[in-house]
Design goal:
CATH topology of the largest domain: Aconitase, domain 3
Number of strands: 22
Radius of gyration: 23 Å
Strand content: 5-15%
CATH class of the largest domain: Alpha Beta
Distance between the termini: 54 Å
Number of domains: 4
Low-confidence stretches: 155-163
Shape: globular
Mean pLDDT: 93
CATH architecture of the largest domain: 2-Layer Sandwich
Strand order of the largest sheet: 1-8-7-3-4-5-6-2
Largest sheet: 8 strands, mixed
Oligomer: single chain
Amino acid sequence: MQPTLQVAAPLCGRGLVGGRAQGALLKADIGLSFWGGVDPFTGEVIDRHHPLSGRMLAGQVLAIPSGRGSCTGSSVLLELILNGHAPAALLLAEPDEILTLGVLVAEIMFGRSLPVVCLGQDGFARLAGAKAARIENGRIELFDSLPIDAWTAEGEVRSLATGSDLKLDGRDREMLEGRHGKATEVAMRILLRIAELQGARELVDVTQAHIDGCIYTGPASLRFARRLVEWGARVRVPTTLNSISVDKRRWRELGIDAELGEPASALGDAYLEMGAQTSFTCAPYLLDSAPRLGEQVVWAESNAVVYANSVLGARTLKYPDYLDICIAITGRAPLVGSHSDEGRRATLCIEVTPPEGFDDAFYPLLGYHVGLLCGSEIPVVCGLERAAPDLDDLKAFGAAFATTSAAPMFHIVGVTPEARDAAQALGNLPARRSLRVVPADLARTWCELDRAPETEVQLVSLGNPHFSFSECARLAELCVGRRKHPGTALVITLGRAIHKRALDAGYVATLEAFGAQFVTDTCWCMLGEPVLPPATRTLMTNSGKYAHYAPGLVGRQVHFGSLAACVDTACSGRSAGLMPAWLNEGGH
């Protein structure tokens, strides 16, 4: 046996969560969304677009630049920690609040933890070539194979401090001291730990919350919510709930197994007991309660965060699941990042050349591509002034952008409220980087989303994010007088409020006559069989977000296209399987 050799001098990073661990090093240079990217029950990487696809995380030292995508990554990581399938440690190039929050909740509420270390870009690059790593409170030793000495990973966990450098007011201190109940005390402790990680110096009042932690990722998500209820948790600000994992009123009728239906419904009930509203939508910006320009809020759900910041001009971070309810309980948030003027400035300028004659598939395609270019940088997109995207276009762009980017917002010159021009979006500072996107770039990204080898389609899935009233109207116009193919289902997910409006307007009747099915309360990122017909081999969607996640979440191949193309496919049972002419001609 070859002796274990250190391959580089030890590294020292910033210990976001302390502790000791060692394991084989599993490294990628692309961020990973734990929600939709990692199976919460096995630890397998299921993001079929990611270089680590198929690898198992349990016991490995996972090195990634950061998380990306969904706010529910914290919930998935909590599940993995409590069920024994978590990585041994996380090594990051930049601090990641979503993943760190999952570890902190495990530590504070359940006494379980793992080390999380931020190395910076230079330190992260030095991991190249190593096969194993040993971590102790921010110090990393790298090896060519896993050491076999008697060293143990057990030891004192030393994590973030208590937020003592933060400026707290009298009520903050009362909450931290437990004078407003156990749930409020624990919520404030978690909040202050993250605030210190973020470098916050003070807290700010929020006017409303949107909770993403109501998605059932497994037993840990329900244990977390029930523990808060047992401790007397109540929200202090008006609070809406994201899509849950089942249609709460109809899951039995839809044939959902009680093994999922009962705990998923119970999780929704737990948040209602804390005082949240019965909204169950991933598009809270479609509700009458949507925040206004400059309003300080706490929203989770990645597409909602991006839309709130970018399109509405409200102010929220991309809050992890579980931190969202902690802030709703305390009514306080760290005054950092996109809560502040400085944290909303673009640093990346992207010039776009739109193809001639493009249709509505252009916006999710562009959002997905721009997100890949950005990483965690906020972009300002130039070149769409004449295109004049509407709110549905911006919804589709933002959801796809949030899937591939870790940034909390974007700017589009002449379209979004804080980008009268590029200079305003950049805060009158030069861009750190400038990039150009031409049709040929988008053609390559189209091939990434539209990958199904078969032309036959058994399901057309619409409503990720939830359909708007105007999308219902447009879809009804496309479907009136037509009938779907008997071998192809068309299923639309949307919120209860929008469904009621569409019902009153007659759109639901038109679409049901076409053969469409409506599902409320839940969304495609949570749906599986039997709502997804078991015989489905290939599905089609107009959502860049779902085109990305579906292969990993439900194991089906995907065609991607415009809303009109989706309707044509529902009628014929087949996708043309071709890149649209506006992109094919512009990309060559």
